[in-house]
Amino acid sequence: MNVDCFLDTNVLVYAAMARFSAPGKYERARLVIADTNFGLSAQVLQEFFVKVTRGSDRPLSVVDALVWLDRLIDRPCIAIDQELVIEAVAIAERYKIHYWDAAILAAATRLGAVTSAGNRQKRGLLPHFSTGPNWFSFVSWLRRSASCGGPAEWLRPWGA
Questions:
Q1: Would you say residue 159 lies in a domain?
Q2: pLDDT tens per residue, range 128-149
């Protein structure tokens, strides 16, 4: 189950809610979702649901949030299981990062993602994370100029 990109929570939040508040981020998030072979994790779906129904001035209804979750049903999704938790703990300890960020890295690794789109990098996560032959990075693609060539350029891993 390999994907080209692992989507972090905020990409989905921007696609669902940022049409008027952050139109550039909204458009880029929509393009990535439409044009990229992406996967996600149960953690991302949980964070998305909580953020869009409770973490906004204009929250989505539960029904609207469920519509978004239903649209993602055909995408590869990594479940949270005992092995993932143990992998995440090892990553968190090795790189001295928060467990929740490490769980995202563990899920992306399990999916075989070569890049990851999201904003966890802004919080000081590793610019590169290596696991075997796969390299992926938390790309701050939302801060890139609108002149980018498209999702493939935005998601190209650094230094690969």
A1: no
A2: 443 333 323 333 322 232 233 3
